[in-house]
Amino acid sequence: MGPRLSTSTSDAAAREIPGRRAPVLEVSDLRMTFGPTVALDGVALTVERGQVHALLGENGSGKSTLIKILAGYHRPDPGGRVLVAGRPLPFGNPTVADSHGCRFVHQDLGLVDSLSVVENLFLTSGFPSRWGTIRWPRLLRAAREDLARVGLDLDPRRPVAGLSPAVRTGLAVARALRPGAAEVALLVLDEPTATLPDDEVRQLLDIVRAVAAAGTGVLYVTHHLDEVFDVADVATVLRDGRVVATTPVPDLTRGRLVNQLLGSELDEAHASSQALPAPRARAVLKVRDVAAGPLRSLSVQVRAGELVGIAGLTGSGRESVLAAVFGMLRAERGEVMVNDVSLRPGDPRRAIDAGVAYLPANRKTHGGIMNLTGAANLTLPDLGPLWRPPLLRLGEERTVARTWFAKLDVRPAAAVHLPLAALSGGNQQKVLLAKWLRCRPRVLLLDEPTQGVDIGAKAQIHQQIVAAADGGAAVVVSSADVDELVALCHRVVVLRGGHAVAELSGEALSVPAVNRAALAAERTT
Ligand SMILES: Nc1ncnc2c1ncn2[C@@H]1O[C@H](COP(=O)(O)OP(=O)(O)OP(=O)(O)O)[C@@H](O)[C@H]1O
After folding, report:
1. Within the chain, what is the greatest distance between any pair of CA atoms?
2. 355 lines ligand 1 (CB under 6 A)
3. Greater confidence, 3 or 83?
4. Which of 15, 28, 217, 295 could form a disulfide with 47 if both were Cys (CB 3.0 to 4.6 A apart)?
5. Which residues does the UniProt record annotate as the domain ABC transporter (predicted)?
6. Which pLDDT does position 197 carry in this prediction?
7. Distance, CA of 75 to CA of 59 (rounded, Å)
8. Ligand 1: which atom is nearest the Cα of residue 452?
9. Contact 317, 498 (CB under 8 A)
10. Is residue 165 within 8 Å of 195, Cβ to Cβ?
11. Is any ligand 1 atom within 6 A of the Cβ of residue 412?
12. Cβ(37) to ligand 1 under 6 A?
């Protein structure tokens, strides 16, 4: 399953040394500027066959820009060179990237929920047919082969809608690896585990190992340091568009990796352990017997100044809780009260008027407005203080934005003026969080608040969430990241099978205890 090597003279650069096959990817001197921003500055990187090569870096360090160049989406500044399995890759053409054997699985997996596994597998490549009739037996056989290639034992006729996130990601990988015009030399995975719970991360890492074992080189973008040690052979760290280091993983320690990432030591234990404020007596948010989708029943009360976590595996109902409380997802049953106001199912407007702010997990579909500036996105929900009819005081808006962006370390400094689309993914997340923190909500609902955020910024975000609670907000955080919940919350409600099966606080609150409760077969409360 090696990469096909061209024999044309223009591909003399194929550089076949007898007995040694060219690396699947060789990047040299890659530079990319967006106006005054230097996103990549002389980047060089090599991925060998069968290697898992982790690519890390702070938010805005240039990872996505590099991937977008490989995918043919961006054209870099002149001078850089990319070889795929020894063949020069022409820039700015997604089809050519594909025919050179580069495949990509982005965070947005591009699956169609209403279709089956087999239909999704053939969606992009077309269905084999004879005289206009789809040859289903052949299709199902090929689908089983595709799934087996990534170690997935799955009925291809199943609808995609019911699959867990790890299996969905595996399916997207299987689709990317479908044999096509060129054999797959390089698979690029862009933060594939951003919102996966621990047990699903393990499942996905098995898939990544299986892909590499078959000879494909894998470029694996992540912010999760544990995954580097679990799955990667080599790690390259970018900072401000430059390669800081490329190190074989056996030569790395966690401390050394953090140092490469941040340019300084970060005391992670210290950074994530916050002194939590003392909750007030008054319950601000009262949720009683709410059911919505996989969530069968949840009752919880949250006091002013209190931080409550929601934990649970995929399918436990965790992902539905905050959307149902906010009203974005119509609850089938139950009651939500904010102080004395009763919220209505499916009526987010009423929730906002009652002082509820909700940061959804999916910033692409429910998040910010990509063509508005960072400052405009920040101030959008509450323009009142900036409004002097008939004018919006733009200077004041920028000052407010600068203050908030400094608190959350939004980069670059020009983010205030830049459209949201020009910010890196992690920095977009920080802007959207700042937007709701600024509104000083009575109830703050946060779904995966630090997804895609680097380890340094995560600590800053946690500080600001705690500060919101200190200011009197009742905060509920739903996260697949159990470490985050344990570091940030007074108590954590664990869901399983749509019900709350445990509530852990004080001494009893720990990562193993939450994981045990999430996995335990029986209900413990
Ligand atoms: N379309 C664009 N226009 C202007 N600047 C851009 C554009 N895309 C990226 N940038 C800038 O290039 C730099 C690198 O961004 P990039 O998205 O590559 O970072 P990243 O390492 O992927 O970050 P993250 O971990 O947050 O996803 C950032 O300063 C970003 O603001």
Report:
1. 78
2. no
3. 83
4. 217
5. 25-265, 279-522
6. 77
7. 21
8. 25
9. yes
10. yes
11. yes
12. yes
Q: How far apart are CA 325 and CA 289, in angstroms?
A: 11
Task: Give the CA angle between residues 281, 282, 287 to the nearest 5°.
Answer: 125
Q: Is the CB of 450 under 6 A from ligand 1?
A: no
Smallest CA separation from ligand 1 atom 27, residue: 425
Cβ of 327 closer than 6 Å to ligand 1, yes or no, is no
Write the residue with the smallest CA distance to atom 15 of ligand 1. 60
Name the band, by pLDDT with cuts 50, 70 and 90, for residue 110: confident
DSSP annotation of 291: E
Task: Report residue 20's pLDDT band, with 50, 70 and 90 as the boundaries.
Answer: low
Rounded CA-CA distance 53/47 in Å is 6
Residue pair 197/314 in contact by the 8 Å Cβ criterion: yes
Q: How far is CA 156 from CA 142, 314, 455, in A?
A: 10, 21, 38
Question: Does the Cβ of 63 fall within 6 Å of ligand 1?
Answer: yes
In this prediction, residues 169-179 reach a mean pLDDT of 87
**DSSP code at position 294:** T
Q: Note whether ipTM > 0.90 here.
A: yes
User: What pLDDT shows up at residue 274?
Assistant: 65
| Ligand 1 touching residue 60 (CB < 6 A) | yes
Of the residues 64, 261, 454, which should be mutated to test ligand 1's pocket, given the most ligand atoms within 8 Å of the CB? 64
Q: Are the CB atoms for 331 and 337 separated by under 8 Å?
A: no
Q: Which helix (H) or strand (E) holds 103?
A: strand 102-105
Query: How many Å lie between the centroid of ligand 1 and the Cα of residue 428?
Result: 10
* Residue 279 · residue 494 · CB < 8 Å: no
Sign of the CA dihedral with 76 first, then 80, 81, and 82 last: negative
Distance 229 CA to ligand 1 centre (A): 26
**How far apart are alpha carbons 105 and 173 in whole angstroms?**
6
| pLDDT digits 0-9 by tens, 239-274 | 999 999 999 999 999 999 999 998 865 555 445 556
Residue 292, Ramachandran bin (φ over 0: left; ψ between -120 and 50: alpha; else beta): beta
Structure tokens at 7: 């024999």
**pLDDT mean over 285-299:** 95
Edge to edge, the sheet with strand 81-84 lists: 37-47, 25-34, 81-84, 87-88
Q: Which amino acid is at 256?
A: R
The C-alpha atoms of residue 306 and residue 354 are separated, in whole angstroms, by: 18
The two tokens of residue 433 are 């969080």
Distance CA 495, CA 415 (A): 38
Domains of the chain: 48-72+92-265 (3.40.50.300), 266-355+443-525 (3.40.50.300), 370-440 (no CATH)
How far apart are the two ends of the chain, measured CA to CA in Å? 52
